[in-house]
């Protein structure tokens, strides 16, 4: 009996010694891996990332409107770097490119908006300043329209809601002045869902055409935006407060009061303004346009886990010319530079991800979030094997980061938080994403398909949205470096877990 106990003790003691020996050997190995990861992390340079933004925002790519040759050239440039780093192509026919149809419209310089002002026996013309007071509609027809302006609120005809902005006014052959969005807030989710179909730019334009209008002053910025429908006989421009107030002047109505009344009562306040405006745009429509997503993958090192995928993505496109070049440095060359920085670091890091990591630069985000929609319909890796998407958009200006949908997916967010506390120490604001309005982010498409997403942005410095001033002068290189380092560390950590499931 004693001998049995003694031998049992010896066996247990031997296992303990063996376990300690393995642990002692493992600790230096773990420390070595940590050192390699740190060295790679610190190789991500703000100077290099800034140069990537500078290249993509240069005139060479003319604003990167999806469908144009300039966009294609920017896609080729990104793909050439993926190839140099050994990121494998997984697009169509062994390339880095996934093609999809995308109509696009070119806008040329001969565009204007002016107000006709009766004066004695003549008519004066008040011309509005490009960008400060108007920007041509990015999908406008080509031509000129001069007509009376009819105010039509939010441009909605919603019989089930007892609401019609066109009731009681005749807009045939006229120019409509219209608000963007809907008269209710997405914060009231149940009410907004009823109004959601009437908030889309495409619906508003098509409804104006349906009622016989020939032109539109869209109270939107003024900013450029190619996310709209096209009708060759419909001329429109985006305008700001100066034009709107001029149209309302002398009507006995104040614009802010009229909008407030619509929102409070949910009753139309449409009326004929008695003002005459000319809108002239020179455009060229291309219904045959083809766009591309740029897709590369770093295959996982684990034979089983490599079937699972983490995506790091951001849209490559911007607005093109409208009619001046919209550089899109922050929106979204900044994000592509971060994607590229992570891709290079992960490819060169001696510690390889066990799961596969995809680097995905979407096309046509600005034209209706079409590139990500196409990818979700035709994924390279099945979506049920896609554990999550980290979407990056507008991360080049400021010193603070935000993580949209971090509260939707707390397990996903924990990896980011842990990496931030360990390496970067940036302020990151988290929020919940209801995702019930029209899709504004590539992440929205993935969330609707059930793929967990986090979307990163930056704030804390002056930035410019959809105008010519979104250029390289606004970029804060340090925030690019910190975000790239943060996501590199977090994704490598995720990719090397034994099990991972953010869908819980």
Walk me through this protein's architecture.
The structure is a single chain. With 504 residues, the protein is α/β, with parallel strands linked by helices. The protein folds into 2 domains: 39-102 and 289-495, Aminopeptidase (3-Layer(aba) Sandwich); 111-284, Glucose Oxidase, domain 1 (3-Layer(bba) Sandwich). It contains 12 helices and 21 strands. It has helices spanning 2-42, 46-56, 69-85, 189-195, 201-210, 241-248, 255-265, 329-348, 370-377, 410-424, 442-448, 477-495; strands at residues 88-89, 97-101, 104-107, 112-119, 122-127, 134-136, 143-151, 157-158, 163-164, 175-179, 215-219, 235-239, 271-281, 283-286, 290-298, 309-315, 356-362, 386-392, 400-404, 428-431, 453-459. The longest helix is centred in the first third of the chain and has 41 residues, at 2-42.
């Amino acid at each position: 009996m004693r001998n049995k106990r003694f031998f049992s003790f010896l066996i247990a003691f031997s296992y303990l010694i063996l376990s300690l020996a393995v642990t002692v050997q493992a600790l230096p190995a773990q420390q070595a891996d940590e050192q390699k990861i740190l060295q790679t992390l610190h190789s991500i340079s703000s100077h290099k990332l800034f140069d990537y933004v500078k290249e993509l925002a240069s005139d060479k790519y003319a604003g990167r409107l999806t469908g144009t040759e300039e966009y294609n050239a920017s896609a080729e440039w990104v793909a050439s770097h993926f190839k140099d780093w050994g990121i494998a192509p997984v697009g169509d026919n062994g390339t880095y490119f996934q093609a999809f149809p995308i109509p696009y419209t070119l806008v040329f310089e001969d565009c204007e908006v002016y107000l006709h002002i009766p004066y004695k026996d003549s008519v004066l013309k008040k011309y509005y300043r490009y960008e400060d007071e108007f920007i041509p509609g990015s999908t406008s027809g080509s031509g000129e329209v001069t007509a009376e302006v009819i105010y039509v609120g939010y441009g909605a005809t919603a019989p089930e809601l007892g609401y019609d902005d066109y009731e009681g006014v005749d807009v045939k052959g006229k120019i409509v002045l219209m608000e963007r969005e809907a008269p209710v807030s997405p914060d009231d989710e149940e009410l907004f869902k009823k109004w959601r179909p009437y908030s889309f730019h495409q619906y508003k334009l098509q409804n104006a055409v349906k009622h016989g209008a020939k032109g539109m002053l869209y109270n939107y910025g003024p900013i450029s935006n190619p996310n709209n429908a096209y009708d060759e006989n419909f001329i429109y421009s985006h305008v700001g407060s100066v034009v709107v107030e001029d149209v309302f002047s002398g009507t006995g109505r104040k614009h802010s009061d009229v909008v407030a009344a619509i929102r409070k009562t949910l009753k139309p306040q449409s009326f004929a303004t008695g003002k005459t405006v000319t809108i002239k745009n020179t455009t060229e429509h291309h219904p045959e346009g083809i766009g591309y997503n740029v897709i590369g993958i770093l295959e996982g090192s684990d034979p089983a886990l490599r079937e699972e995928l983490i995506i790091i993505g951001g849209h490559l496109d911007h607005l093109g010319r409208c009619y001046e070049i919209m550089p899109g440095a922050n929106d979204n060359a900044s994000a592509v530079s971060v994607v590229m920085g992570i891709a290079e670091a992960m490819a060169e890091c001696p510690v390889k991800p066990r799961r596969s990591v995809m680097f995905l630069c979407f096309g046509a985000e600005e034209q209706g979030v079409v590139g990500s929609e196409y990818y979700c319909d035709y994924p390279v890796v099945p979506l049920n094997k896609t554990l999550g998407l980290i979407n990056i958009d507008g991360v080049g200006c400021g010193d603070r980061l935000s993580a949209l949908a971090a509260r939707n997916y707390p397990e996903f967010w924990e990896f980011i938080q842990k990496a931030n506390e360990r390496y970067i120490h940036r302020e990151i604001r988290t929020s919940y994403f209801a995702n019930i309005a029209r899709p504004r982010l590539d992440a929205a498409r993935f969330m609707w398909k059930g793929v967990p997403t986090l979307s990163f942005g930056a704030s804390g410095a002056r930035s410019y949205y959809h105008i010519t001033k979104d250029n390289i002068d606004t970029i804060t290189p340090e925030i690019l470096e910190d975000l790239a380092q943060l996501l590199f560390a977090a994704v490598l950590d995720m990719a090397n877990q034994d099990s991972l499931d953010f869908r819980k």
